[in-house]
């Protein structure tokens, strides 16, 4: 059997490394999912070439630093299986590189997507109904009851579909803020706070990321649907 040439072996080994990181590293899974969402949004909004280049740069740096961080962690664990201050420093510095890159990616996303999202929110707000104070509480109760119904309906069958109630309420409130206020920056800050809550719950390993994301989608979807279909 013919042996693969050197460049083919290098490509295969690199591919195995990406698969390992994606299969075993929780943060890498999140970064890949976030990259898919961001690239899909770039196509949806029809961003100009320069903005797409910045998005690709941020996504590439994010994934590369996460791969390097994984390699450093495994190398340190191999060389120093016991706890050691220098080993901790090496891991902390590698993790810091991921944090810096994540900050750059977040800032890039906020700058690039601000104008398209502002236009989308302004267009959508013009087609909806005004929201009263009573409707807000009714809508939040609807979101809570829907999430509880989904949890009890599907979890009893053992398929693990249990949307997070906290993220559902958080993104419902963020969607209500976006529908109510005229300032797009305030609306985006509301979604930012909801996303911070989602990431905090995910970081504490209280709930799987899929459950948190499902709750966020349910809360946001129910709120937007009610805003457009029913006068409040």
Helix share, percent: over 70%
CATH topology of the largest domain: the name is Helix Hairpins
Low-confidence stretches: none
**Percent in strands:** under 5%
Average pLDDT reading: 82
* Class derived from helix and strand content: mainly alpha
Radius of gyration, rounded?
A: 22 Å
- What is the number of helical segments per DSSP (H or I, 4+ residues)? 8
Report the sheet with the most strands, covering strand number, pairing sense and barrel closure. none
Shape: globular
The CATH architecture classification of the largest domain is Orthogonal Bundle
How widely separated are the two ends?
A: 72 Å
* Integer tally of domains: 2
Please report the first level of CATH classification, the CATH class of the largest domain.
Answer: Mainly Alpha
Number of strands: 0
What series of H and E elements makes up the topology? HHHHHHHH
Transmembrane segments: 30-47, 53-72, 93-114, 126-148, 160-178, 184-202, 209-230
GO molecular function: ATP binding; kinase activity; metal ion binding
Active site: 66 (proton acceptor)
Protein name: Diacylglycerol kinase (ATP)
């Amino acid at each position: 059997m013919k042996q693969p040439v050197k460049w083919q072996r290098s490509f295969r080994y690199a591919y195995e490394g990406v698969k390992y990181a994606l299969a075993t590293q929780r943060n890498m899974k999140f970064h890949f999912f976030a990259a898919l969402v961001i690239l899909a949004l770039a196509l949806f909004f029809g961003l100009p070439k320069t903005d797409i280049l910045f998005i690709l740069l941020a996504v590439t740096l994010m994934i590369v630093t996460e791969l390097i961080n994984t390699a450093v962690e495994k190398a340190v664990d191999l060389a120093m299986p016991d706890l050691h201050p220098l080993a901790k420093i090496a891991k902390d510095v590698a993790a810091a590189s991921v944090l810096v890159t994540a900050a750059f990616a977040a800032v890039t996303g906020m700058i690039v997507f601000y104008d398209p999202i502002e236009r989308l929110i302004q267009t959508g707000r013009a087609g909806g109904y005004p929201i009263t104070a009573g409707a807000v509480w009714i809508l939040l109760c609807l979101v809570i009851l829907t999430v509880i119904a989904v949890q009890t309906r599907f979890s009893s069958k053992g398929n693990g579909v249990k949307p997070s109630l906290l993220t559902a309420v958080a993104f419902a409130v963020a969607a209500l803020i976006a529908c109510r206020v005229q300032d797009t920056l305030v609306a985006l800050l509301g979604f930012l706070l909801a996303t911070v809550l989602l990431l905090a719950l995910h970081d504490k390993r209280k709930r799987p990321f899929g459950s948190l994301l499902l709750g966020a989608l349910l809360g946001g979807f129910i709120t937007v649907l009610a805003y457009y279909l029913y006068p409040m």
